[in-house]
Amino acid sequence: xxxxxxxxxxxxxxxxxxxxxxxxxxxxxxxxxxxxxxxxxxxxxxxxxxxxxxxxxxxxxxxxxxxxxxxxxxxxxxxxxxxxxxxxxxxxxxxxxxxxxxxxxxxxxxxxxxxxxxxxxxxxxxxxxxxxxxxxxxxxxxxxxxxxxxxxxxxxxxxxxxx
Length: 163
Fold this sequence. Notes:
Elements: H1 3-18, H2 20-32, H3 35-104, H4 113-126, H5 131-138, E1 143-144, E2 150-151
Antiparallel strand pairs: 1-2
Helix pairs in contact: 1-3, 2-3
């Protein structure tokens, strides 16, 4: 709560309470018929009444400032949330881009001469099994990406692995 709001509310309440005393004096003076005392009491009542309205205006100003401050704070919080979301989105886009780049860098395995000889020997033995193995043995080697797509040998870098 803004200080002007508190000051206004307390001041208005105090002046309204102080208004009771001159009002009581006014009633007593009216019963007695003392017009001078009644006029003095009415003067005090008017002063207290004016002061109460001044404090009420102060309280209204303070409440307007409270509303402005609350709106400002809410706007700052919204901007912070928007900025956090923007940063998270940028980080996510960076990770997605890194994953895309990682998918294009594939590794290949080259078979040594000894392995090729063993492959030929195993395909000769498998020729008697079925026609499907003949077709598989004749096909060229294929490189796969992480997503399972095939990549031609011209596009991918070659890496030599010896065991």
